[in-house]
Design goal:
The chain has 5 helices and 13 strands. It is an alpha/beta fold and 278 residues long. Helix 1 links the parallel strand 1 (6-11) and strand 2. The protein is globular. It starts with 5 loop residues before the first strand and ends in a 22-residue tail after the last helix. The mean pLDDT is 94.
C-alpha cells in the first residue's frame, strides 16, 4: 500500500564549527527520502516564522545550535518563531532534535527546554565524554521505534554528551543510553579548553553522572504533539543500521504517532541498491 508522503522541514543554519557543512544536511535528506516515506525541504534561516509558513509540514527536524564555538552565546530563533513552534507541536504535529541541538544554555527559555524534554547546558555541568567510540544500549526494546534494534551496538567517531538534564515538567521516555565510564576521562588534556568542565575537588569521581547511564535517544510529548531527540549523530552514525533505523522511525513517529518503517534489508538483490538499501 502506497502511503502519502510526510512533509519534513529540516531546519539548520548556524552550527558549532565541527558540525557545520551542507554534506550532513544533504545526507539527512537523502536518508529520509530513501525510505519513500518523506519529502524533505531545507531552510537555513528560521527567524520570524509564521504559523502559515509551517502549515504544510507534518514534522520539523531541527539540526541547529546557533553557535560557532561551544562557549558562545546562542543565536536563538527568536520569540516569534519559538512560540510558533510551541503551537505547531502542541496542536498535534511533531518535532525532531538532532545531535548538537540538545545544547541549550541559559540563552534559551525554559519552555524550549521543556519541549526538548532532555537537554545539555554547559552552565549546568554537562560535558562531552572524551571517548569517541562507545556502546549504545537499547533501554526499551518494545517501543515501535526500537523494535528489532540490537540490544547493544557500537557507535564510532561520535560525541557522547553526558549529564543530560531532564526537564521536571517533561514526559521523557528513554529509548537508548550509554554507560558513562569514569575510565574514559583518565586521559591527558581533559577537559579541553574549548569545552570547560567543572571537576569538584579535582576528582573525576565527583563529576555528576559519571559511572551511570546517560540517555542518548528519547521521546517526549508536548501538548498533543510528539518529540523525538537524538544526542548522537555524527557522519559515521549514519552508517550504523541500528541508528538510521531509529532515526527515520523517530521522524515518522513524531509526525504521525505510528511507525511503519523497517530496518534496511541487505539481502538478495537489495545489496546492489544504493545505501541504505531501502
Amino acid at each position: 500500500v502506497l502511503m502519502d508522503k510526510l512533509n519534513v522541514l529540516l531546519v539548520t543554519g548556524l552550527l558549532t564549527a565541527e558540525h557545520q557543512g551542507r554534506k550532513i544536511t544533504q545526507r539527512l535528506r537523502d536518508l529520509m527520502e530513501a525510505t519513500g516515506r518523506f519529502h524533505v525541504a531545507i531552510v537555513e534561516e528560521f527567524r520570524n516564522i509564521t504559523p502559515a509558513f509551517l502549515e504544510p509540514y507534518d514534522v520539523l527536524f531541527v539540526d541547529y545550535d546557533g553557535k560557532t564555538w561551544p562557549t558562545d552565546h546562542a543565536r536563538r530563533f527568536g520569540e516569534q518563531t519559538e512560540s510558533t513552534i510551541y503551537d505547531f507541536v502542541a496542536k498535534g504535529k511533531g518535532i525532531v532534535f538532532y545531535h548538537s541541538s540538545i545544547w541549550v544554555d541559559s540563552d534559551w527559555p525554559d519552555e524550549w527546554r521543556k519541549l526538548l524534554g532532555g537537554y545539555c547546558s554547559m552552565d549546568k555541568g554537562c560535558r562531552r565524554c572524551p571517548k569517541d567510540d562507545f556502546y549504545v544500549e537499547t533501554m526499551d526494546e518494545n517501543h515501535p521505534i526500537t523494535k528489532g534494534i540490537d540490544n547493544k551496538w557500537m557507535n564510532v567517531f561520535d560525541d557522547l554528551f553526558t549529564q543530560l538534564i531532564i526537564h521536571p515538567e517533561a514526559d521523557v521516555h528513554v529509548l537508548a543510553s550509554v554507560y558513562d565510564d569514569i575510565e574514559n576521562y583518565r586521559i591527558p588534556g581533559f577537559p579541553p579548553a574549548h569545552h570547560p568542565v567543572e571537576i569538584p575537588g579535582g576528582k573525576l569521581e565527583n563529576m555528576p553522572g559519571v559511572n551511570e547511564y546517560t540517555p542518548v535517544i528519547w521521546t517526549n510529548t508536548y501538548g498533543k504533539g510528539r518529540v523525538f531527540v537524538t544526542s548522537i549523530g555524527h557522519w559515521e552514525a549514519l552508517d550504523r543500521f541500528n541508528f538510521i533505523t531509529m532515526l527515520v522511525r523517530g521522524v515518522e513517529w513524531a509526525a504521525t504517532g505510528e511507525v511503519t518503517l523497517k530496518k534496511p534489508d541487505r539481502s538478495g538483490e537489495n545489496r546492489l541498491k544504493l545505501f541504505p538499501y531501502y
